[in-house]
Structures are given as structure tokens and as C-alpha cells.
């Protein structure tokens, strides 16, 4: 008979209770007795708890994501459902699935995840960025921190006459909580809204970083005052302050150089040694313990300071993020949010007087944070809608506020009633703020309506503005080959803006580096080879080509925002994007990058000018003799995109080194229907007909085609003849010339003709440029 042993264990809120000491492992289902179920063992119970939490969280997220409800909300709602408010009211539910004697395991696991989350956010933050921000961001950041603190102190003093002595600590800590808006919450919100790389997103991140650093600086004297008051002696507070400062100095003077030493001794292109990752992981947990025993009450404060000491970006910062991001952000931190929700009991809210005061405090605190950002934004002449959007983002609440609340609850600083009320406030804010931001700031409509940013609208002797995007050095060389035949002259020069796209690793804030300004940023060194290629090209054609190079470091899902915003600011006419597939010299496909493809699709939807996708096959060996001329062909079926492709080809044909062929494909059965599109096509082809009769390097011909297979035959016959074929992306879907071609399209975003020419079956060194003319309002109606 198993011995009945008991042990004193802490309850969920530090209540001491007597609980049975449960064994860790189950002996197996066949060895269980009637009175000894599997839920009497710690590990099986923990596994069942995790399964219940994750299944319910994912189910709620799948149900609510169509309403744009964030994961933070679904995680808290899961905890509320499993807690005493709902399922906890069922007799025996909590005792069976979430017993008190087992809760400490779930609590420890969740807190470990949150510690890693805060550490990673510290790793991703770049304190040096604060020195590069302007007066506008500094003013907004300082005002949005100091005004809530000042108003909170006034409000706390005013409310002392209306509340009893025992409730004052609770009220004061809630007022203090309303003065913070942590950087991790802002970064997560911008990521959920997919506006991290937008102008508003960049300002919000910079402002949030300033606010976070100011809050860290203010935390030291506040902690000194609190410990002095609780210990009844300024000596106790002074000792805590000295230990606190010593802790920070140790990290800065000892650990920061150690991190730099690790980076120095990591060979370029090689991963950081696993032993270093292990030591840093241990340091994260130790810093949390040290910070807790220093009396800060915030067990995550030490890991945040340690994360700030880690140099941002690769190799060390990105290695830490790669190792711990999925475990922390994907599994353990959501578990912590759910666990906080499980401690919430809305049914115990009964004191209407305290409830009314808390509601007033929460409302005033939120409004004060909003005003603290809104007024400085208006003072710097930010548009009203943008100022409102920025203020809403900086007023958001989320995971850090819930962690602080739960810490107050466990330390008996906060009552369960107050905890439930403030949790409800965090939940409401996390629901409302994203909806309001989406309503006020729709990034997808930023550029729609701006016209005359395409090649067709430009005059032949005007400066041609081309925006080139590259991921690797091969993309740069392919783009230069295209620029070479774009006929740069002194009367009609090329203005080229180059954007090297790099994936954001180990940092939270995206970077846009202007190499013409000579910015000394370590991350820019990875772009050096690509920039050197374009510098050489500019020097070779001095006076004919002007190149401005940039590097964008951001997450792939936001790279299209960097491309579109920079092309918009620089008044570009054409954006050149590299195709997501690459071939070797034998014609074998060696790269198929879905991330690059996704970026191209998003740019095509949002671009403020025309877009071209360049399919580069120049590496394939040609069997036929190489021609001294660049042989360019345009396949013309009609429409805006084909007219844009023809306009670009006509500019190329002004160079005697380019031989241009324009092939018009028309249906055998001509309906004779005359519309505006047909008139525009005819007018654009008149000039080509005239040039073909006057110039030897321009040829025009027409082919009658009855169906899609006939078109495919003609297209494939051109692959061995030409070096570059330019086609439009969109054509009339009901055209008999294209019948059946799109049904088997492997890359439908290139259009019917572009998909034929970009097929992996093509083994000739013919490059393809698929052109889409700029979207405008009348096209989208």
C-alpha cells in the first residue's frame, strides 16, 4: 500500500497549503489501481494540461483570426475559460485537471518562457539607434513617459482622501502600471498589423525604444524608494541601490566585452559555438534569480538588461534568436499568458466603490498615455490621422503588463479583485487598439491614385528612373546587363537606385541604410560586394548613369514595404525585381526561393510605379554563335502592360547596339470590335511600323494565331533567337490567342506568355522581362 505523504507547498497566490506529495512518473496504465489514476502523477498531468491549453488556444485563434483578433487576446481568453470564471465553476474540474499541487510546474515553465522572451527582446533592441533618432522622436518619447508619470503622481495624491489605507498600495501600483508601455508590446503589435517597415512603424519603434530606456533609468530610484519604504530603513534601500547598480555595471563592463570576444572568435559565415550559447542561457536564468533577490519584484528585468548587452544582429544576436525564438515566442510565452488568464476570476468583483475607482484610473491612465504622444506629434506637424495612429500604437497593452500584474498578484501587492479588473482592461485594449489602427492606417492604399510614374508617360529624352532590387550578387550582374541596353546617354541618362534586401536576424528594428551618406553600420558590410559592382558600373559610364545604393534589413514579409516606400519617395518609373528561380550553366534550376516570390507578388500589388520581373538565364551556355548585337524582342498582344513593355523596348532601340523585333500576335477571327484599348494599341504600334521602315535595327511583324497552343509554338520558336524577350503581365482573359495557357501555368503571376518563357523546360540563354504597368485608381475599380 502506497504511503500517504504530505508536503507544504505554495499555492497559486503564495498561500501555504498542505498537499499530497505526488510521484513524478506513472508506472504505466496496466499497473494502475482503481484508486490510483494517471492524473495522480506530475508529468502525465502536466502533459495533459499543456495539451488542453494548446488545443483550446489554437482552436480559438482559428475561430477569431478572421476577425483580426490577436494571439495575445486568444491566449488570455483561453486562460479565462479554463479558470474559475467558466470551466472552474464545474465541480471537480480544477481539482482534476489543474490541481494546486501541480500548478507550480506549469507556473515555472511559463515564467521560464517569459524570461527567454524578454531576453530575446533585449537582444533585438538596438540602444545605439537612440542616438540616431531626431528631435521629433526624442520629444515624443520623453513626453509620452513623463506626462503619464506626472499625472499618475497627482492622481495618486488626490485619491488618498477617497480610499482607505489598506487599498492605497493596490491603487498606487495600478497607477504605476498605467504609466508604462513596453517596447516588446509595441514590436509585437506592429508585427501583427504588418506595418513594422512603414513610416508609422519606424517612428513607433524608435519612440518605443526611447521610452523603454527612460523607463529603465527611472526604475532604479523608484526601486530604491520602494525597498526603503518596505524595509523601514533608508540603509536597506541604499544597499539595494548599490547592488542594483553593481549588477548593471557588471553586465556592461564584464559580460559585454565577453560577447564581443565571442563574436571576434567566430569565423565569418560560421555559426556561434554551442558552448557559448549554453553559457549565455545559464546567464539568462541566473540574472533573473539575481534580479528577484535584489527586491525588484520583476524577475524579467535582469534578462532584459543582459539582452541589451548582447551586440545586435549576426552572428551572436541572430544565433540566440534562432535558437530560442520558436521555443519562447511560439510555445512558452503564450503559455504564460494563458496561465495569467487562469488566475483571473471575474465572479469575485463585488466592491463597486473600488471597481468605480479602478475604472476611472484605467481610463485616465490610457488617455494620459495617448495625449502624451498625441500632442508632441501634432506639434511636429504630423498629420492628424498619423498622430492618432501613432498614439494608439504607443498606448497598447499586452504581455509585459500581464506579467507585471501577475507578479503583483503573487506578491500580494494586488488583490484578486483588482487583478481581474486590470486584466479586463488589458484585454479590452488589446482588442480595440488593433482595430482602430487598421481603420486609420491602411498601408495597402498608400500609393493608389498616384499617376504618371511609368515609362510610357516619360518622354524619350527624359531621365529614366529605375529602381533595382537585389538579393545576391548574381541579381546585381543581371540587372546591370539590362541597364546596359537601356540606352543611357547624356541627353537621356539613367538614374538608378539599388536596394539590397537582407533578412532581419537578431534585431527587432528594421534598418534602411543609405550608402551615399557613408553611414558606418556594421550590418552594411554584407552589402559591400554588391555595392562595389554598381559603383564600378557607375564609374565606367560616368555622366551617363548615376547610382544611389541602399540596404534594407527587415523581415521578408515586410520587405515589400521598403521597396514600395523608397520607390515612392524617389519618384521611380520602373522597379526591377529578380525572379525567384535561378539556373546554372547547364540549364539546370538550382534556386527556387519562395520568399523572393512572395516579395515579388506583394510589390506587384502595391508598387507606386511600373514593375518588371527579370528572369535571368545568362549563365546558360549558348550553342549558336554569339551575336555582337543585343537581340531584343517584344511580344505584343495589347493592353496597358504590353504598351509599357513596348515603351521600354523603344528606348532600348535608340541604341545602334540593340536589334529590336516587335511581334504582334492577333486572333485569326477578328471580331472587328473597336474600343478604347484597341485604339491605344494601334496608336502605339504606328510609331514602331514607321521606325521599322526607317531604321535597320527595328523590325515589326504580325502573326495570326487561332488558339493557345499556336501561341505557345510561336513563343518557343523565339527562345533560340533572342537574348531578351519583353512581355506584359496582363492580357484579356477571353482572348482566343491565350485559350488554355493559364490553366497549366506554373507561375501564374507572370501571366500566360511570361509563364511560357519562364518555364524550367527552357534550356536556352534567353532572359525575360515581365512588365506590369503602374496600378492606378481607374484600374482597380
What does this entry look like structurally?
By secondary structure, this protein is an alpha/beta fold. The protein has helices at 42-64, 71-82, 93-97, 100-124, 135-159, 168-177, 183-193, 199-231, 234-264, 274-293, 301-309, 316-342, 352-379, 384-394, 399-410, 416-440, 473-484, 528-540, 559-569, 594-606, 640-652, 676-694, 708-717, 751-757, 777-780; strands at 6-10, 16-20, 464-470, 494-503, 511-514, 545-554, 574-578, 581-583, 589-592, 610-615, 630-636, 658-667, 698-705, 724-728, 767-772. The strands form three sheets. The protein has an eleven-stranded mixed β-sheet, sandwiched between helices. α21 links the parallel β11 and β12 (658-667). The N and C termini lie far apart (79 Å).
Biggest pleated-sheet summary: 11 strands, mixed
The backbone outline, from C-alpha atoms, is: elongated
Return the CATH topology of the largest domain. Na+/H+ antiporter like fold
Portion of residues in beta strands equals 5-15%
Number of strands: 15
**Continuous helix count:** 25
Q: Kindly state the mean pLDDT as a whole number?
A: 79
Task: Summarize the amount of helix as a percent range.
Answer: 40-55%
Q: How many structurally independent domains?
A: 2
Structural class, from helix and strand content? alpha/beta
Sequence of strands across the biggest β-sheet: 5-6-4-3-7-10-15-14-11-12-13
The Cα radius of gyration reads 32 Å
Q: First CA to last CA: what distance?
A: 79 Å
> Stretches where pLDDT falls below 50 for ≥5 residues?
1-10, 12-19, 777-781
